[in-house]
Every structure is written in C-alpha cells, then in structure tokens.
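Onboarding guide, step 5: your first structure request.
Type a short instruction followed by the sequence, for example:

Predict the 3D structure of this protein.
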Amino acid sequence: MDSTPSPSSSSAFDLVSRALGRYIPRGGAAGTRTQASENPAAGRQEQILGAVNLDKDLTITRCNLDAPVFAGLDAAAGKPFVDLLPPGDVPTVTRRLRQVVETGEAHVARIQRLRRGDGSELVVSMSVLPAAAPEEGLTVSVIAMARRLHLYAAETAIGTSLDIGETAQSLAESLLAWGDVAAVDLDFAVWTGEGVPGKAQGRIRLRRAALVPGRAWPEGYVTPGNDLPGEASRLLAQAVLRDDAPQTIVIPDREAVERVLGSPRVVRALVPGDRSAGVACIPLVLDGAPPVVLGVAEVWRRADCPFRDSELFDLQELVARTAHHVDLARQHQREHTQVLALQRRLLPRTGGATIEIASVYQPATPDSAGVGGDWVNSFPLPDGRTALVVGDVVGHGLGAAATMGQLSMEARALLSAGLAPDEVLEHLDETVSLLDDAEAGLAAGYSALGSTCCIALYDPVRHDVALSSAGHLPPVLATPDGHAGPLPVRPHPGLGAEFALREPFDVYTFAAPQGSLLALYTDGLVEDPALSIDEGISRLADAVSTVHPWDALQRAARHVASALAPAHQRDDVTLLLARMIGYRKEDTATWRLPARNDAPACARAQVSAQLRQWHTRDDTRYRVMLLVSELVTNAVRFATGPVTVRLIRSGHGLLCEVGDTGNGRPRVRRVDLLADGGRGLSIVHRLTTRWGVRWTDTGKVVWAEVAG
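The system replies with structure tokens like these:
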C-alpha cells in the first residue's frame, strides 16, 4: 500500500492522510509497533480512520488503511473499489460515487459495510470527497464505527426526520452494524399515527416499516409496506411481551427459529434466506406506566456469528434511545393526517352550470414542519354568482389548520349572507386579530397574524369578476384571445396587520368573457429559490395560457401544478382553476324603471311578455309576476331613484332580482291581520324556494328563486 503522501500535494487524499497522521502510522505493522513503543498513549489510542483514493473509473489508486481495525480489507492499487462492498450495496454506492464525480459535491457520513477477505464485514462511516480537478477522481474517507461513536451517529441520524417511514428506515440502517439483515415492524396503529394502548386489544397487527439492505427477496418474504401474517404478529408480540414486560429475545439458529415459528408460511415471511439463521428481537418501548410497545426491531445474522452479550446491550441501548423518535414521528403522522383531512374537505367539489371548477392540493413533504394552512374553496351563492376563495394561514400544524377552518367557514357564511368581498375581509381581519389574543387564541403560542386571503366573485350575467385581496398573490386571468397575466391588484397588508398599517380593502372588477380561465393559488406553487416571485407568477401565467378550451379542466390543473411545483416541497401547493361559462345573452332580461306608482304594472307587463317568449308554464309565470310586483312595490315605497328588474333563466328555475337605492334590510315579520302593511315579504317568502339581499355601492338587490 502507498501510505506516504507527497509533501507538495494538496489532493483530498493527501489532506485527509495528513490530518489522520497522528492516528494512522506510516509503514504498516512495523510502524505501528515503533510508534506504540515511542509513545505508549498512541498505542492505546483507538485507530479508526482511513482514506482511499479512486480514479474516475472508481479504481483504487492509493490507500491509507494501515490502522489495525482495517486489517483484512484488500484495497490494493488497481482493484475496483466495489470489490470492498457487499454485492447488494454495489448499485447504490456506485451511483453515489459517480454522482460525486459528475457534480463535484461531496457525500458525507454514509453508514456503509465493507467486506474483509475472510467474509466478515466492517461497519464504517464513509464520506466521498471530490478532487480539485475532475480528472483526479475522488477520495473516500472511512471511519470504523466504534461502539459509542456508532450509537451517537445512529441516534443523530434517526432523529432528523418526522416521517415515520424514514425514521424506521434510519433505525434499520443503524441496526445493520450488528447483523446481515435488519427489519423494523411497527404496530399498525403507530404506522397510521393513532394512539397505542398500554395493552393490545383484540387482534395484533404489525406492518413492516423498514428493511435493509434493499434487494430482491425470496417469494413470500414480508417487505416494507406489507402486513405480517397474523400468526407471525402474535408470535412476535408474545415473544417480546413475556410476563407482560417488554424484553429482548434471541433465537440462535435456524432449527430453533423454525421450531418457534412453527408454520412454513411464517418462516418464509420472516426468515430472509438460508444464511441468516439467528435473530435478535428488540421491542421498541415507550416508557410509561405501563410501558407501550410501538413495534419490534429484528436483526438477523449467520448462525456461526452468535450475538455476544455486549452486542445485545448495544442493540437494546440503540433501540431504547430511538424509540421516542418513532413516537414523535407517529404523533406528526397523526397531526399530518388530521390536517390533511380537513384541507381535503375544504377543497371545492364541483362547479355548476355557469362555471367549471378544478383544484389541486399537494401537501408539503412529510419531513417538513407539518401541513400548512393553505386552502381554496368555491361555492355557488344564492343569487347565482360563484365565490372563489383562496387563503394562506401563517404556520403549520393543528393551530394553522384550526384557524384555516374557521376563516374558511366564516368567509363562506358572510358571502352567502350577501356581503361584498371587501366587507368579508374586514371581518376576517378582525377575527385574526382576535385569535391572536392569548386567552382567545386557538393554540398556545400560535399566531395567525399576517395570514393572507383573496376573494373573487364571478357574475355569470355581467361576465366579470369582482375581487378583494388581503396580502395575497394576485390571481392569474387567461382570456379567450390568448392573453394571460396576473390581475393588477394593489398590494395590501395581510390579515391582522397593525392598526397603523391597516387600510380599507379595495374591490377590483375585471371583465371575464365566456371561456376565460382564472387561476387562484398559494405561494408554494410559484416560489422557487432560483427565481423571483414575479418570474414564478409569469411561469404560472404561461402554463395557464396553454390550457385549451376543450381540455379537461381537472387534468389541466394537475398538469399545471406538476409543471411548476418544486420537487421537494417545503410548503403546500394549492391551485384552483375556474373556467367561466356564464349565462347566454338570450337567458337574461333587464329593465330599468322609474320609481313611480306605475312601476309595478310596467314590470308585470315586461316580465309577462318575456316569460311567454321563454315558453314558461302558466303557473310559474303567475308566481313570477306576483313576486316581481311585490318586490317592485316595496322598492318604490321605501327607496328613491330608479328600480332595476332582472330576470335570469337557469336550469333549475328562474331567478328574479329587483335593485334599488335603499339601504334598509327587508325582514319577514309576523303579519297582524288588522295591520295595513307587512304582507308583501310574507307573500315573497311563500312564492319562492329561497330569497335574500345583497348590497351594492348604490343600494341593494333583493333576489328570489322560483322553481321552474
């Protein structure tokens, strides 16, 4: 072996070798004896560091593996590095090495096994360092995993993810240092995020959460994602819960394994081949009274390498240290599932006769801080318009989800009551401020200040969109002529802004001809570290402009989201596409009448003629004429200015609207038989399926729906 680096060299191999010089003697075994005699402290020091230099073809050119712990590793110059690897690990490690050669980015601290000449294996922490020049290849530094170092490194690695599958996989990879195959089987309730009782109730069910190494396994063997056979689950549970106390068990050889498991089907499901005969089963126990068993970790090894007591102590210590990480991942999984279910319920279901709706919601990656507070919603308003709402609540988790649900439901209720978008945002702003109060807040330590929301109302008769925004990114509108871009909405502070920053919410109205496509979204769709937010919105506009009028809208929404969303989402991705259909011109009729005593008679005549032209049934025509007469009479009596009458023919009946300049809210009251007035609205109430009021800049509109 060439273990003497050139003093003038500055390659990664030489730098590592010089840094390790105090630990790795030069000159082989003789050098080791000399150094130990000259410095007794060095002889007692645990020598665990080494380095191997590779060329671009992954062939060994130099190595510095003189420490005794690396004895038996055949790392001679000219040999392929993959000869040091177990066959099952060759594809993965080769891919990592070539990736470092191609990208020049180091790959640090991978737990890896190396094969000795006698067939035994050495567990190391392997780092791959690129050379300064690509043609010089790369350097592989290895650290033989001493007991305490391995336990520390394993616990650190296992605690880095909140995803329960990744947590189990990290545990299995760490357990591989003690055997040939490692598996982690979790209680199904743990896997799904549910609570686990102290004692199992009913049928025991275990699911394989992780298995290493990854390879082609024998037929019938249980692999990740599959449930263990019922009898296997019961046997494992009984084994680790003897005398109602969780404890580790060891089955030393294949004969004993087959005798304990009994059924050939169970043997095929649990034993990973002929060579791995002995097994140690270590329960994952959550401390408590009584202790809770989350699952079982299994380490398999050859019968000629029995488990020593010290190794079993190490295994139990590692599993005990990391069981709480599994429980944290379980809690995160439960919270993630609950929030995701809430957000799914808020997604719009369908459109209607005047608008087509499609939505996409992609939660953040499982190892992020949790599902965020993004939501979109659409729903028909009683007066024939459609509300489109998008919001982004600050933060993640249950606090954000609770606030999201409250704001979404409050917005729907206020819009259905006839409030304008700016008025609804004023109420939401007050709600967010109230929820920030320490006593009234939904979650301790959580604040929703700065949340954003955008509300758009589509009028299918006027073919326009009226919207208000509280700090949200502008919607993108694509018109039938092919033009697409963000709507020019003036930025506004988010909900709950400081009093000094609060401004009145503006209402913007934009034309939305038939065939237009409106996109509402949250920032997770357009944010990219490599691009500005304006460039992200421009990319969205380009993607929306490519949607053909004949394209299925749900498929188009999924295509747009997949084209723009980052591969590793740290935030939720939310998109709503709305295709404007509207009413045909021949399905609406509008009249403007002066506020005079003859206005009801004029309205009846106009409406009667229009309904005859639409071939409306006589009984429906009679009810509509009576309804319009009562509404116009009230408008003339209690308001000033002209009266507007509008009739809309829809698939489920007729919608009548009477607008005036008054600001009083009509209310149905009990009618006194001796009173002169008060009967008009009672008649309206009986003639219609539903009716209500919406407010405008100049007054109000009373609308009523009559079944066809």
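Each response can be followed by summary notes, for example: Residues 1-9, 22-45 have pLDDT under 50 and may be disordered.
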